[in-house]
């Protein structure tokens, strides 16, 4: 005979299957929201072409900027940020306490969207949205560091990676130690997605925002975007 396994939650006995519904749903909602490729959608809707065939082929705002449409790039950045924030806030409303899983799902969805054969963006904007959802001080420090370094160095990848690394550090300083492992993992994903950028930073060949555009053959050889 089939029997449901039981688990104790407080003073109630609940089926194990029911207990796992909120975490699983939080992760799934985060992934589905995070995997919306706004860069691809916006460039197609506005007639700018298939973003995956432009520049580095990355779906983030930095590559959208290569279409020459600054407003479109700004919209992509804001929407990529908003989907991370929305995932965390929605799950906080539906299942308080499951926000970290929604945050993880959103970033993974952006970086590895099933709709694009798991070839997504670098996750910087989405991580900022996630950070804002988990705690506005995390998002504020992220924004200040990201925009400040970008203004000073004009190197998108460097600014984005530094901002990503700041999230677990800020959480630890604020005493949110329960968030530190999650934010370390998310920052590691962002760094992994920037591994080609790191190599170019070491070589001194990383392009700057607003700098000279590489020739088509050079852009193809680069093959990776500087952010997003």
Q: State the total count of DSSP E strands.
A: 2
Described by strand count, sense and barrel closure, the largest sheet is: 2 strands, antiparallel
Widest sheet: strand ordering: 1-2
Alpha-carbon distance between the termini? 52 Å
Order of helices and strands: EEHHHHHHHHHHHH
Q: Could you list the spans in which at least 5 consecutive residues all have pLDDT below 50?
A: 1-9, 213-224
> What integer is the average pLDDT?
83
Structural class of the helix and strand makeup? mainly alpha
Continuous helix count: 12
- Looking at how many chains there are and whether they match, the oligomeric state comes to single chain
Please indicate the percent range of residues in DSSP E strands (runs of 2 or more): under 5%
Principal-axes geometry comes out as globular
Give the % helix.
55-70%
CA-based gyration radius: 19 Å
Q: Which key terms come to mind for this protein?
A:
single chain; 228 residues; mainly alpha; two-stranded antiparallel sheet; disordered N terminus
């Amino acid at each position: 005979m089939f029997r449901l396994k039981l688990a104790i939650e407080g003073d109630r006995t609940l089926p194990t299957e029911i207990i796992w519904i909120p975490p699983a749903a939080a992760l799934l909602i985060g992934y589905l929201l995070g995997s919306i490729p706004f860069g691809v959608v916006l460039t197609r809707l506005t007639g700018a072409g298939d973003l995956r065939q432009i520049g580095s082929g990355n779906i983030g705002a930095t590559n959208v900027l290569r279409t020459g449409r600054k407003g479109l790039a700004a919209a992509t950045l804001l929407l990529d940020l908003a989907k991370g924030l929305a995932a965390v806030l929605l799950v906080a409303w539906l299942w308080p306490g499951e926000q970290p899983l929604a945050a993880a799902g959103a970033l993974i969805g952006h970086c590895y969207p099933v709709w694009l054969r798991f070839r997504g963006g670098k996750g910087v904007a989405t991580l900022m949205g996630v950070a804002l959802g988990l705690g506005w001080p995390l998002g504020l420090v992220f924004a200040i560091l990201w925009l400040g370094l970008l203004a000073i160095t004009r190197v998108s990848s460097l600014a984005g990676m530094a901002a990503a690394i700041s999230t677990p550090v800020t959480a630890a300083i604020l005493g949110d130690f329960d968030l530190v492992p999650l934010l370390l993992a998310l920052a590691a994903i962002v760094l992994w997605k920037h591994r080609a950028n790191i190599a170019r930073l070491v070589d001194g060949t990383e392009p700057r925002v607003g700098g000279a555009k590489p020739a088509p053959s050079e852009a193809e050889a680069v093959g990776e975007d500087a952010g997003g």
